[in-house]
Amino acid sequence: MVELFDEDFDAIELAESALILNKAINPKTNDIWARNELKRLLKEAELALSHEVDEQQRFDALLRLFYHQWGFSGDQEAYYESSNAFVDKVLESRKGIPVSLGSILLYLGRKLGLPVSGVTFPSQFLIKLEWFGEAPKFINPFNGEYVSKQVLRAWLIGHSGPLAKLKPSHLKSVDNPTVIGRWLALLKSTLLREERYTLALKCTDLALSFVPDDPYEIRDRGFIYQQLDCHQVALSDYQYFIDQCPDDPAAELLKNQVNAMSLTQVTVH
């Protein structure tokens, strides 16, 4: 398996980092084609925007090119499909979710010399635009629209509850490893939902290569092993979680699960 966290993700663009993650989870990821496609889109963008002198107008022209001429858009019909988190699939279908679409837009914007960065806002990924001497602006990568502070406050309340307050930390630019960590969790969630347990197991293995003793990752790994009929390993992982997090509400449920599994014949793989 690729040692994901040995990569210097801050030395490359987020979309390239995501392709490394995608390939580590699913070896069938068409990463070579995707890298070439990113370069092709960049060349097309450079040509299309060559007449734009004003930098802000240049960025708006990039948004029009990306969302209208090329047809990239958020996948409203199948938002939670795992394909929306694989960059090669998003480049193929031109549909994705905020983080995958945002990574491609960031790639283009940064290569074009525009002042863009990524923000892991609690409810979704954002693009941050910082013009010299002006307050930052924020783009929703799902549709390419500017998002006001008022809308961001509403999103935060919807995500975290009525007492949530918008803080500067919510709008801080983040490094690629932070985004990749959240992307990995997102991929695991979508793969579990699709019952693609072998690929989901790769997600937990990657996460545990970074934080080896995380009881919640080990609990999730136990669930995956149970689905794969590896009951002995699942029991061990469940017991580890129970021992490490005895006050977690899930621990009591898992105790019952462990007792029930222990009464059945153990299958060793």
From TrEMBL:
Record-annotated Protein SirB1 N-terminal domain positions: 34-184
UniProt superkingdom: Bacteria
Pfam families from the UniProt entry: TPR_9, Transglut_core2
InterPro entries the UniProt entry points to: SirB1_N, TPR-like_helical_dom_sf
Protein family: Belongs to the UPF0162 family.
Protein name (database record): Protein SirB1 N-terminal domain-containing protein
Organism per entry: Vibrio aquimaris
